[in-house]
């Protein structure tokens, strides 16, 4: 796997190849379990399902959802069982007609050259897979043999259609395309276009595009309604900043997906301290149509509170080199610290907004500048003569 061989940098994760991503360990307060893992799998266990027969009503989907080992076992057993079943039928036809006994040259059997169950089994395989070695064949002597021949051909075609279709669907599953759709390991919150924004970065490692790609975000947290009902997994949609007005994206190069933290945002009242103390999870879902197969695919990931970096932004990854745009994936998840208000977006709006923050930022010297000024003042005082 790419993530294990070191071919993929540690700055981002593959949606399906991130099983080696270690979860952070916490001291003190226990964190809630993830709803969606970093690799996109949903952390939900379905228990106490009484109507198990519903899965058998949709056999094809059940076969596709099974593990490869179970699917191959069912694939092999379906053919073996059908061969053995019809081998028994051919042997009974031969036994009832007397074909197993030695007869004269004028005797016409139902099926030629069937002398035992082994020969009946070989003839069953020849009929169902249309091998036709030429030694055994059905004659017009027995109507029952003709009927069994027709039935076995129909059953064989049905088994071939179901099992081969199942194998094809498993190999062409949409989640395989999600292997090369990548998300940044961390989300960031900083100022962008004079607004406090929540941002993540996503990209596609393949040259074949994802058509009609859309991105959705949700905040999952525990909440209580005014009536006192506790909702353990309250899913709240959050909107992305897109000038087109929709969530559609053109995913040719890595993109930064931005969510403006405004009054309609579930993150509006959260400060950096509140973010670390609240058990929230931001789920990101990327959907689109695979260009080469036309199958809809989906990639998912999530960000817990401690995976959201306040006061940082992503570094650029795209440069223009000799008339082409080059993407440096080694910088995909890199972020740098930038001046950001250390309060919630609600408190920021109450204090005058980003303009007030920038004015205060320019009027207040940075710690490094203050240290430099202090050192210069000490040097000046040390150079003054005592007589003066």
TrEMBL record:
Residues the UniProt record annotates as site (Role in the control of polyamine-mediated channel gating and in the blocking by intracellular magnesium): 160
InterPro entries linked to this entry: Ig_E-set, IRK_C, K_chnl_inward-rec_Kir, K_chnl_inward-rec_Kir6.2, K_chnl_inward-rec_Kir_cyto, Kir_TM
Location in or out of the cell: Membrane
GO cellular-component term (any): monoatomic ion channel complex
Family classification: Belongs to the inward rectifier-type potassium channel (TC 1.A.2.1) family. KCNJ11 subfamily.
Function as written in the Swiss-Prot or TrEMBL entry: Inward rectifier potassium channel that forms the pore of ATP-sensitive potassium channels (KATP), regulating potassium permeability as a function of cytoplasmic ATP and ADP concentrations in many different cells. Inward rectifier potassium channels are characterized by a greater tendency to allow potassium to flow into the cell rather than out of it. Their voltage dependence is regulated by the concentration of extracellular potassium; as external potassium is raised, the voltage range of the channel opening shifts to more positive voltages.
Protein name as annotated: ATP-sensitive inward rectifier potassium channel 11
Species in which this protein is naturally found: Oncorhynchus mykiss (Rainbow trout)
